[in-house]
Amino acid sequence: MKAHLTRRYTFSASHRLHSAKMSDEENRRVYGKCNNPYGHGHNYALEVTVAGPVDPRTGMVCNIVDLDGFVEREVLERFGHENLNELPAFQAAVPTSENLCAEIFSLLRAGFHAAPVEKVRLEETMLNSFEYSDKGEVPR
Ligand code: NI
Hints:
By secondary structure, the chain is of the alpha+beta class.
């Protein structure tokens, strides 16, 4: 039997939506105010869901302390209070929340091994959120 554990984190970062694959005019049309050259900030909320059997010894899917440590080091320190456009992950990709969510999912999948990471959900504002999950994908 599988149990799910979801933990919530918050961080702030700035970005500018601008694609090198489109003209300046097209960028303005597609991204509107989000293409403003000076960028803008968001207070992101991140939810990480791990899923797996409950360890009969501890009664837990994984230790939240381990998850917190990993997310703090690998996600919050990497993206928190940064201009996302300047980071290596977004030199080729536009730092939309779709791409940020996928990047966080990859980091967790590659580096967190205490329990399988099933889903990452990223709230950009109170009105929109993005999800990335392993549904339908071959586990790495
Ligand atoms: Ni934005």
